[in-house]
Amino acid sequence: MGLGTANDLRVLIALENGQAAEGARDVFKKMGAPVVKVAATKGDVLEAMHQTVFNLVLVEDTFSDLGGLDFCRFIRMVSSPTSVAPLILAMKMPDRARVQEARDAGINRIIIMPFTTDSILKNVQDILDNPTPFIRVSGYSGPCRRKQNILKKGLERRQQQTGVLSVEAQKKLFKGI
């Protein structure tokens, strides 16, 4: 069961690089996304977020004023359906530490800049087709970081599953229901 289709997308693109932003906008428009907003500054982003509830955000790791990771942490903290939207981080020079920091900031996917049309399409399609539960607990807000069901010895810390937003609940938020 997927989150939805490209026709359900309401995308916020927060990239300083104007050429990359326009290229990404064109990709989302060709996919069929009815709402695609491009923002180059913190002010543009905040204005766009006041006007529209987005269900997918593409942000650059060096985004102006805030920095991409701090902006993603901000999105995860806001009281809005956008806070559970999938986040794609466009990184210029990824390394192990930055990727782990992005994961801990609640990023769903990372693409490398300069990105290709294919990299955007594959990542967005994977997000739509294979959603993961959303976790909101003290110290972390973002997609479930567990990628495999591994049997561990000892106590399972998630037995009560508090702070988990199911995929079905995410689907309703994604579609604006």
TrEMBL record:
Coiled coil: none annotated. Residues 10-128 form the Response regulatory domain. PROSITE patterns: RESPONSE_REGULATORY (PS50110). Transmembrane segments: none annotated. This is Response regulator.
